[in-house]
């Protein structure tokens, strides 16, 4: 009888545990889940490149670099456009993100830097560059952010600044 009693107790304990787990699981499944999820600020490629760009920009006169800037934060539509044209124009850039924005000490945008990889499309990049150029910004496009040196980045920035920014 002792063996049967022990087995019954073991079965009852296991049954209680299973019921408890099922109860907790059912309770949690009714919990509201947020539609929002965290996202990494930068890709690994961008994270390796970012400190190099910061150093190169700093060498050129203390410029600062901001990563992942919404295009709509630095570009607006011309106030002379009709409302419908302003909206249509804004829709061409308002959900786009710029990899890096270089600013001066007064927080004026000096240049845009895009770090291109194999996922980039020349046609789409040309359209983006047309938008930023239309707002008066020079864009530097670079590849191989992991391999490029600070000196190479500084040279590329100087070349763009000489031709477009006159620094």
Structure description:
With 167 residues, the protein is α+β, with helices and mostly antiparallel strands. The chain is 51% helix and 15% strand. It has six helices and four strands. It has helices at 2-29, 44-59, 71-74, 83-90, 122-134, 150-165; strands spanning 64-70, 97-103, 109-115, 139-142. It has a four-stranded mixed sheet. Helix 2 crosses helix 6. The longest helix is centred in the first third of the chain and has 28 residues, at 2-29.
Tags for this model:
167 residues, alpha+beta, four-stranded mixed β-sheet
Write the topology of this structure:
Elements: H1 2-29, H2 44-59, E1 64-70, H3 71-74, H4 83-90, E2 97-103, E3 109-115, H5 122-134, E4 139-142, H6 150-165
| Overall average pLDDT | 87
Terminal CA distance: 96 Å
- Secondary-structure-based class equals alpha+beta
**Low-confidence segments:** none
Helix content: 40-55%
How is this structure best summarized?
It is built from 6 helices and 4 strands, in the order H-H-E-H-H-E-E-H-E-H. It is an alpha+beta fold and 167 residues long.
